[in-house]
Design brief:
The protein has 339 residues and is α+β, with helices and mostly antiparallel strands. The protein has nine helices and 13 strands. Strands 1, 2, 4, 5, 6, 7, 8, 9 and 10 form a nine-stranded mixed β-sheet that branches. A two-stranded antiparallel ribbon has the order 3-13. Strands 11-12 form a two-stranded antiparallel ribbon. Helix 8 links the parallel strand 6 and strand 7. The chain is globular and about 75 Å long.
Length: 339
């Protein structure tokens, strides 16, 4: 018995985009009819044409029905599968960049002083990163995590007295509906979730959430969650922006938050990301920063070194963003939206 030939065709994402374009075309036709005060599309058939010839709208309807029939009933995507095409399809719109505010020297100096007597002081973090730079191989994601972990430990030391922070690693995110028809979801797990709660609630939070790390268990707390995605140091961070945006969006939908902040990093380079849910409740706008790096090349010997100022800058931003994860950019932020 011969092998059945594999059918060729458009990938699922392109079929979904084609369906969306056809449905939009149908909406535009209906809108044009309303604007023109017509209850029906008026057509004048030329002599000789068969009057049963399908109208354009009927062809659109048939095409939409065909696509819906031949598309998979449900599409469940993992975060790592997400691309720029998916973001466009699910109405996750990239806006202009977040740029650092000018004249941040005083804020950087202040960040160095916060938690100066703690185990993870600014000086300790710089020394620790210097050791990693010399002793730890860097191509793989596992080595990136040994760079990322210390920044979160430093953020713990920089928390104000009335707040405490905890980490959950490889936090499971249930599949979240992201399409208007309810048939497409994405989910999976995120590398880091930084949780901040009021200090008086921390013991209860630790006992009831950290033991199980279920997102459904944190809604009762006055709580902020900050998302971090880790990547191998050899990888290009920009290529993973769709995955990071998808993770933040899924958490927003799960927790019902209108705004959320996150970061994409390999420990040496950092891209900060802000999402805001669209007014109609489906889709979101997102802003990303340029890459910030903790290293520099010495002009004299061309050696790579750790920048104490860059470390303090990134630590300060990270701590502020963890604390205000669900709030819009304000005047006291490190970033401003590019106009």
């Amino acid at each position: 018995m011969g092998k059945r030939k594999k059918r060729s065709g458009l990938p699922g994402i392109q079929l979904a985009q084609l369906l969306e374009m056809m449905e939009k075309t149908k909406e535009d036709i209906l809108l044009a009819r309303i604007m023109n005060g017509q209850s029906e599309v008026e057509e004048e058939l030329e002599p000789g044409l068969v009057e049963s010839q399908p109208k354009f709208e009927e062809l659109i309807d048939r095409s939409i029905a065909f696509l819906k029939t031949h598309m998979s009933t449900n599409v469940n995507l993992t975060f790592s599968e997400l691309t720029e095409d998916h973001l466009t399809l699910f109405r996750l719109k990239g806006e202009k960049i977040l740029k650092l505010k000018p004249n941040l020297g005083a804020q950087v100096d202040a960040a160095k002083q916060v938690g100066s007597v703690a185990a993870w002081s600014a000086d300790h973090l710089v020394r620790h990163l210097g050791l990693l730079l010399e002793r730890v191989a860097s191509p793989m994601e596992a080595s990136a995590r040994v760079w990322i972990d210390p920044f979160f430990f430093r953020a713990c030391a920089m928390m104000p007295p009335d707040k405490k922070m905890a980490l959950s690693l490889e936090q499971v995110v249930p599949h979240t509906v992201v399409s208007l028809d309810g048939k497409t979801t994405f989910g999976g797990y995120i590398d880091y979730a930084a949780h901040t709660v009021n200090a008086q609630d921390f013991d209860d939070f630790r006992d009831n959430f950290l033991a199980f790390a279920s997102l459904s268990g944190i809604k009762m707390y006055d709580h902020a969650i900050f998302i971090s995605e880790a990547k191998a140091k050899a990888a290009t961070l920009q290529n993973s922006v769709p995955q990071a945006v998808g993770e933040i969006y899924a958490i927003m939908k799960t927790l019902g938050k209108p705004t959320m902040r996150g970061v994409l990093t390999n420990g040496e380079k950092w891209i900060f990301i802000l999402l805001k849910v669209a007014a109609e409740g489906h889709g979101a706008s997102y802003w990303i920063s340029k890459e910030l790096t903790v290293t520099y090349i010495d002009i004299n010997d061309q050696a790579t070194s750790i920048s104490a100022n860059a470390v303090a800058l990134i630590s300060g931003i990270l701590t502020h963003w963890i604390l205000y994860s669900h709030e819009a950019i304000t005047d006291d932020d490190w970033f401003e939206k590019e106009q």
